[in-house]
Q: What sequence folds into this?
């Protein structure tokens, strides 16, 4: 019997700021014989997340940093190829934190869930995975949108942002997206149903934001922080809510970046600012997935995928997110479905 070979993308060096291709290397190792209770998963799609920048950083975060020479931490979806656990069978499609590699030998504890039929399996990493769940709970529970709200979303054309905008629309709110470049502005209004979208890279960004939000801003779903958020805070209404979900525009937190102080706005406008981390709601993912699935089926919730081919694409894939290369959820396909 030929030994299976496992290509792994490992963290070679700790990046300063945004991880670049040369912070990773690809090594090939044999797949070891399966241990007791283990399951061998052949990864098919690897996820790429802006949060990976934090996962490889040793600046304080919500999880331990990926160790040097370890396989890059990543959510994946794949097929069970061998199983020593009676709950998992060859052919089952599963998702979990299985890493940027061809094969993962894990126990059931590492598998988040089996992926059911009915949707393309890639969606388990995007709209019907971490991004959709983040949008669902981040908006509905932390943000508590009302039908009368003007809801502004940053990274509006991306995986989380596009879903937040559409859910806010489903709840009756008027939605305004902030994104980079004319093509993404078009994507926001034509595909993701935003009432208006604004290009933060354009010289007239603030004037365009005023025009898009004539009645001010009631809810801001913040995926970027930085200059985009500085502009939004100036336009918040009394009793506005801000959900802080990501900080994509801040290149480094060490040393802490300086910016305008917003406490006076928060005080005088009685703003509620809420940080949100999806992993806190792990026990409730099923609830979000059920509703997201219904919306995808009915066509009320659309999604875009940005698929790179081959594991060789992985090392540069995070930097690409920070260049804004992706249109929708960025994935790497490393095997045929
Ligand atoms: N808190 C949580 O639990 C949680 C969970 C998942 C994701 N998130 C956060 O949600 C946000 C979106 O994640 P995603 O997976 O959906 O990624 P995504 O939006 O599909 O891709 C990242 C996008 O960030 C934007 N971006 C990159 N650099 C930027 C900069 N300097 N200024 C402004 N925008 C920049 C780019 O869009 P443009 O081309 O429009 O600039 C890029 O396409 C991230 O901040 C992520 O960390 C948080």
A:
């Amino acid at each position: 019997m030929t030994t299976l070979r496992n290509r792994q993308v490992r963290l070679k060096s700790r990046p300063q700021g945004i991880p670049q291709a040369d912070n990773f290397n690809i090594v090939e190792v044999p797949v070891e014989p399966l241990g007791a209770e283990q399951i061998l998963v052949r990864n098919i799609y690897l996820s790429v997340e802006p949060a990976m920048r934090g996962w490889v950083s040793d600046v304080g975060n919500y999880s331990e940093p990926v160790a040097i020479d370890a396989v890059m931490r990543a959510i994946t979806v794949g097929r069970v190829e061998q199983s020593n656990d009676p709950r998992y069978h060859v052919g089952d499609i599963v998702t979990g934190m299985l890493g940027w590699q061809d094969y993962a030998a894990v126990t059931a504890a590492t598998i988040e869930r089996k992926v059911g039929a009915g949707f393309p399996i890639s969606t388990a990493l995007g709209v019907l995975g971490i991004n959709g769940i983040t949008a669902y709970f981040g908006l509905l529970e932390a943000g508590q949108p009302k039908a009368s709200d003007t809801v502004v979303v940053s990274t509006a054309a991306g995986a989380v942002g596009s879903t937040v905008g559409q859910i806010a629309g489903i709840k009756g709110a008027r939605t305004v997206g902030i994104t980079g470049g004319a093509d993404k502005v078009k994507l926001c209004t034509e595909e993701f149903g935003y009432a208006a979208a604004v290009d933060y890279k354009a010289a007239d960004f603030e004037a365009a934001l005023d025009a898009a939000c004539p009645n001010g801003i009631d809810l801001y779903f913040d995926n970027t922080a930085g200059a985009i958020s500085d502009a939004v805070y100036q336009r918040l209404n009394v009793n506005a809510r801000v959900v802080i979900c990501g900080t994509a525009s801040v290149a480094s937190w060490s040393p802490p970046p300086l910016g305008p102080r917003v406490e006076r706005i928060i005080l005088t406008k009685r703003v509620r600012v809420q940080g949100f981390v999806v992993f806190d709601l792990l026990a409730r993912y099923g609830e979000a997935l059920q509703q997201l699935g219904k919306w995808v089926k009915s066509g009320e919730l659309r999604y875009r995928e940005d698929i790179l081919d081959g594991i060789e694409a992985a090392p540069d894939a995070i930097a690409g997110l920070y260049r804004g290369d992706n249109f929708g959820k960025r994935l790497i396909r490393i095997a045929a479905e």
The longest helix spans residues 130-143. Residues 2 and 327 are 40 Å apart (CA to CA). DSSP finds nine helices and 15 strands in the chain. Residues 5-126+304-333 form a domain with the Quinone Oxidoreductase; Chain A, domain 1 fold (CATH 3.90.180.10).
